[in-house]
Amino acid sequence: xxxxxxxxxxxxxxxxxxxxxxxxxxxxxxxxxxxxxxxxxxxxxxxxxxxxxxxxxxxxxxxxxxxxxxxxxxxxxxxxxxxxxxxxxxxxxxxxxxxxxxxxxxxxxxxxxxxxxxxxxxxxxxxxxxxxxxxxxxxxxxxxxxxx
Length: 148
Known about the structure:
mainly alpha
């Protein structure tokens, strides 16, 4: 029980202290993990028949990914993001549509397509965030001159 509470506290602290960019990455990670979970459950289901608990768990994993994608949608800033925000909104809308269909039909191909697309966008965000962090670092030559 104490281990669970410590993990929960760690997660809450990590979220509270994260930058906006890091939060976006965390959302992508959560969506990707949920879809990986759904795909894994579908693989197990294929070998074990129509186990209702696996079907329910798969549905919950898909819904969790949809909720994360919806959170990404509402976080878009159309004023500053312009065309990029519009494009992401269209992609997120498509992702949720595909996941709705995948939920109904238990179609692993659709889930995998959304998962891979989310991962590609996540990589792009990670590069942008890393580039911004690197540009904010002070130059090594800009330190204190102790030579006198």
